[in-house]
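Researcher: We're reviewing a set of sequences before deciding which ones to prioritize for further study. For each one, I'd like a predicted 3D structure that I can look through quickly. This is Tyrosinase copper-binding domain-containing protein. If possible, include the structure in token form so it fits the rest of the review sheet.
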Amino acid sequence: MATRTVDGQDIRPETCSNGVLERQEIRTLTEDRRKAFINAFKELHTGASPTELDRLSDYHNQAAGYAHSNAMFLPWHRYYLVFLERKLQKQDPMITVPYWDWTLDSQAPETSVVFKEDFFGGNGKGKDNCVEDGPLAGWQMAYPKPGCLKRKFDQGDKIGAFYSPEGIRRLLAENTEFSSFHLALEGIPHGRIHVGIDGHMNTMHAPNDPLFFLHHAMVDKIWSDWQEKYPDKARSYAGKKENGQAAPSDIIPPWNDLKVEDMFDTTALCYKYA
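Model: Here's the predicted structure for Tyrosinase copper-binding domain-containing protein, in token form for your review sheet.
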């Protein structure tokens, strides 16, 4: 039986043809690998509108209800990152989505290397808050309405503090059950980055901005760290879903041949964290 596809892409985790690749922190990538990631990402936003990236962003918007503020948040976004990663790997099979450890920048996020011109550019400018520097300068997005890629730091030219390394260590220590862990992580630690960068990042079309994927790779890494810290609960999944109680057998729309239980082992999805 053929597996279901989205945009013609096989969605079933299969044998890893290039082995299990490491997702690295963005600062540890070589310049060549960073440029390869950025160039592959830019390729998704070429051609007629809506581009492949525009459509990918709209998948996230369509998942507003069932993949947020409930147990599906972590497994849905885990596969969403894999879905992007496989698209990037069509251009370079060794590409992985790097994570941005924003705890390292927690007390002055606006100074993070990710906002440098040779990374992903800085704050938006002008009345429309358009990103005007770096590799994303001049980007025009289809959703939520046609216009430039936007950022609007929440404190003018600065960003309010993010969770610190100690804050994340405390979150991991205090939330020993998945049902409390996923809520604690999705709340302020995750949400603060969206609010702080603002612009498109503070909408359901946040994936317009590549920083969304670096941020969510960090969120996914924190889940992976939690699984490693509590190995007897690594396949634990409980709490509420959009309609009812969550179960490992729940499907992950729009990839309706995938289940939450397929998401527990990142190596089965061909990646692990450095």
